[in-house]
Amino acid sequence: MTNHNSAGVLPSATTDSASRVRRVVGYVILFTALFYVPSIRCGFFADDWLHRLALDQMPDIFREQINLFGLIRSTEEVIAFKRFGLAPWWTDLDVRINFWRPLPSITHYLEYQAFGHSAIAAHLISIAFYALSVFLVYRLLARYLPHGLSLVVGVAIYALDDAHALNIVWIANRNETIGGIFVVASLLAFIRYREGNGSKFALLSLLAYTCALLSKESGLVL
User: Hey, which of 2, 181, 182, 217 would disulfide with 212, CB 3.0 to 4.6 Å?
Assistant: First the structure.
């Protein structure tokens, strides 16, 4: 005799549906990663070269503040940027561009220590971070959408949104992806806390939010 729940639905049916959705979402994440593999041919550009210069020739820039995103921190640097055409001739000598993003900086530092100036390794690492962000978005959407086509489509829309391409192809812009990872992780932990799963999730939410702020200023949006 087969047991049915009160709604007349086999318990295993829901489990099988969730399992199929997880499998399809896994395929979406794999396809997304493969979709961006050609970015390994892009090499370095823009701020990537400044990071490479700092890591290779001026390591104290990283060691002093664990930060690679302080582009213009002094009058001397303003003058140097103007001299080499990196800043317009009319740039005020008091201008400063100094973001503190230690967590993405650490990933660039460790990547450099392990792989040197390998653009291929740098791009693959950025793709891996983005794949992780897609997985976390799936976990978030799964709390509000039924395990079916709508959930898969929602994850796919996020994963393949071309607005995210620059965060993956431009290595120096990895901070956007890392910041997003911690924002979603913090939100997931906060939801678990609100559901009565213990104060540890409140602490995890706060920790993840702090990490988001240490990755990108826009983490404040949470």
Answer: 182
